[in-house]
Amino acid sequence: MAKTAAILRETGETRIKLSIDLEGSGKRKISTGIPFFNHMLDLFSAHGFFDLEIDATGDIEVDFHHTVEDVGIVLGDAVNSALGDKKGIKRYGHAVTPMDETLTSVSMDVSNRPFLVFNVPEKIYVKGPFDVYLAKEFFRAFAGRAGITLHINVHYGENEHHIIESIFKACGRALSEASSKDDRISGVRSTKGVI
User: Going from the N-terminus, what domains does the chain have, and what CATH number goes with each?
Assistant: First the structure.
């Protein structure tokens, strides 16, 4: 069964149209009105081998928060839908990804128990226009709607761009692993028999 989903979500602040194929090749077409965010979602898609299309408009003249959070909500809904009953998937994924001076590890459990742990360096020496706390809001929304326990740990890093980039790459890689099939798994990977 194909692991695909397409979702349209409209609110008074944003309009998000998104489609994903978790078993794709990394093809992507992303437009959010926020160039840095587009770049991060490109990396998530490319490194996870997801085919991803996002057309998002929002009140970015107010700030980026509504658009970033709502894309996280819709992406989480799409991943949850694409995984369906979660039968046969590995469930767990982990990736360690360097980006110049930065090293990030992402671990996830597609558990239907959403939780986010987000650890970044206390002091960031090179700031950017898209900060790590905005990235945190994206991943909080994504994990919550996807039903994923998500641990993001940036072991060290100085440049905000590098920190965020390593997170998005690692998250794509970890999700690719967690959502992949394993022939040894019949049903769901849980001793309870349900996720």
Answer: 4-179 (3.30.230.40)
Per-residue pLDDT in tens (0 to 9) along the chain, 195 residues: 689 999 999 999 999 999 999 999 999 999 999 999 999 999 999 999 999 999 999 999 999 999 999 999 999 999 999 999 999 899 999 999 999 999 999 999 999 999 999 999 999 999 988 999 999 999 999 999 999 999 999 999 999 999 999 999 999 999 999 999 988 888 777 667 678
Beta strand ranges found along 64-195 (DSSP E)? 92-99, 102-110, 115-119, 148-156
pTM of the predicted model as reported, rounded to 2 decimal places? 0.95
